[in-house]
Design a protein that fits this description.
alpha+beta; six-stranded antiparallel beta sheet; about 25% helix; binds flavin-adenine dinucleotide
């Protein structure tokens, strides 16, 4: 039987530590309970929020005026892939993501190692196509099993049909939350070596050329060390990790937008950028935020602040409210837009809040 409670405070269930109560709260420990809880909320025509590890959510201080279903399903199955050099790992939505990555590294399965240290649950990884240090889950997801709230059916979506893009997918684009992820299947390669290391900072710290390889466990440790240096590994002793990760995505600019930005900052100022497809470049949001006058540790209202380690993370070192975090985010967003003409997009999901 799922556990059902009223007025459960959500702040303690999010990594930012903000958010008021859920009117109704259901913890679903099995796939059947998860589907039943979602069906029940839909039959009552109640607003529904699926909660994983709460690491990509900013929930309003007024809480959630409906049912919050916390995913607590478990189970990992391994099968041989269609090709001899691959295995398929099917992981229940409620499995802790970093636990899955750690067990793959220990078992000599390559494909997820650069995604070490990302908080949250496996079922959320397809939502924003979780990525870091040159890897993203879209590269290794073969299928996503979902409960479709419109048809009432459970279906398997092939990876290429999930509309994956940079920190997005069709799941994230669909604000109605039509599909509830039940399980994700990954195609991994049995190997003691990582895939090609594409991220320059990681390659440097491993002492390999870009595109080179390194032992899986070494890559995991290097990624964790880099992440810790930025407050990007959850650590109760590190107030800078009390965040929702990066608060803004890196904007993709077309040639005209980039030329306009260059004009605004001055022709002699080099703008860091990465290729993002024909006629497009990705500009680091952290650089834009710095350029607009915000530094590490910049104070916002109520104790909310920019991380002292990473300009892209907004943190609640303790005592800040959702309104304080949103207020700081709004100030940054507006100033970047007004000074640099770039409209930064929020990476976390805002619930009952807007910028
Ligand atoms: C310190 C820190 C570092 C981070 N670093 C990274 C990083 O490097 N790369 C990166 O991509 N992200 C990063 N994140 C963001 C976050 O960890 C990921 O987006 C993660 O996948 C969110 O998982 P979650 O279980 O916590 O999801 P939640 O925050 O609980 O939910 C996020 C969204 O997904 C929906 N959702 C969750 N589970 C399901 C499901 N089963 N079915 C349907 N919808 C669902 C929720 O309704 C919500 O809309 C970081 C966050 C923190 C706090």
């Amino acid at each position: 039987m799922p556990s059902v409670r009223d007025q459960v405070l959500l702040a303690g269930l999010t990594t930012l530590g903000v958010g008021g109560p859920a009117r109704r709260f259901v913890r679903a420990g099995t796939e059947a309970e998860l589907i039943a809880a979602v069906r029940d909320a839909d039959q009552r025509a109640e607003p529904l929020l699926i909660l994983g590890g709460g690491s990509n959510l900013v929930i309003a201080d007024t809480g959630f005026p409906g049912t919050v279903v916390q995913v607590a399903t478990r189970g990992i199955q391994q099968a041989a892939g269609p090709q001899a050099d691959a295995v398929r790992l099917t992981v229940a939505a409620g499995e802790d993501w970093d636990g899955v990555v750690a067990s793959c590294v220990a078992a000599g399965l390559s494909g997820l190692e650069c995604l070490s240290g990302i908080p949250g649950l496996t079922g959320a990884t397809p939502i924003q196509n979780v990525g870091a240090y040159g890897q993203e889950v879209a590269e290794v997801i073969t299928t996503v099993r979902v409960y479709d709230r419109v048809t009432g059916e459970v279906t398997e979506l092939a990876g290429p049909d999930c509309g994956f893009g940079y920190r997005t997918s069709m799941f994230k684009r669909d604000s109605s939350g039509r599909r509830v992820v039940l399980a994700v299947t990954f195609r991994l390669r049995p190997s003691e070596l990582s895939g090609p290391v594409r991220y320059a900072e990681l390659a440097r710290s491993l002492g390999v050329p870009e595109g080179g390889q390194a032992p899986l466990a070494t890559v995991r440790e290097a990624v964790l060390a880099l992440r810790r240096g930025k407050g990007m590994v959850l650590d109760p002793a590190d107030p800078d990790s009390r965040s929702a990760g990066s608060f803004f995505t890196n904007p993709v600019l077309d040639d005209a937008q980039f030329a306009a930005l260059q004009k605004l900052v001055g022709a002699d100022v080099p703008i860091p950028r990465f290729p993002a497809g024909p006629g497009q470049v990705k500009v680091p949001a952290a650089w834009l935020i710095g350029q607009a006058g915000f530094g590490k540790g910049y104070p916002g209202p109520g104790g909310a602040r920019i991380s002292t380690k990473h300009t892209l993370a907004l943190v609640n070192p303790g005592g800040a409210s959702a309104a304080d975090i949103a207020g700081l985010a709004r100030t940054i967003h507006h100033q970047v837009r007004d000074q640099l003409g770039v409209d930064l997009a929020c990476e976390p999901i805002l619930v009952g809040l807007s910028l």
